[in-house]
């Protein structure tokens, strides 16, 4: 018996961000979130992009980071409870108790409760993340209304081991907030579709638009079903990418091609 809802309406906030300006980014994102909540197909879940408070202001990230992500959590919780909507709060720069700054996803349920927190485990050296941020130390699944979901951030999707680990832990949907730039649109779309097909799971990925000194971010946020079909895809402009996902499709696809039963872990050397 299915214990989760039949479907979810999703709204991905494909925002432009102002480098190093958390208050301005919060207002900008809030306006888009409020707009998303007025849609005829009212969202059950809103998702934000990676590092949506600061962008990649890495040279000032110590000073900008949110202590234990508490102010971001409180702000997201208030919005979620007010609008009765789940929020996958992209990621923010979190100053942890150990003084290190991490790239951390916060997940808040409809009641405003924090149900998941994940810090990016693969840091992206091309953007010098490893010089300014500490890695997360664990993989994370979380339960939203009876559906187990997996957490990942941006560069993490280049590591199929992570998606597979989350799927084996029972995740049926993978969330991927990102700041993924040109010229690697082909990698973005292909990797996300591959993660969906190989793990027979939904992949929901929210990428920012706009640019900073070093990069042009292309948006193209995606909602991909467990067959690897693209249900919704953004363009390069700021906006809300909406889509409706049928949650039982994961079990149907896994039943038709029993990939998880056919695995040969006895032969894999990982
Ligand atoms: O892997 C890539 O090409 C982009 C990754 C990235 O931009 C990030 O992790 O922030």
TrEMBL record:
It comes from the Bacteria. Residues 8-247 form the CN hydrolase domain. InterPro entries: C-N_Hydrolase, C-N_Hydrolase_sf, UPF0012_CS. PROSITE patterns: CN_HYDROLASE, UPF0012. Belongs to the carbon-nitrogen hydrolase superfamily. NIT1/NIT2 family. This is Nitrilase.
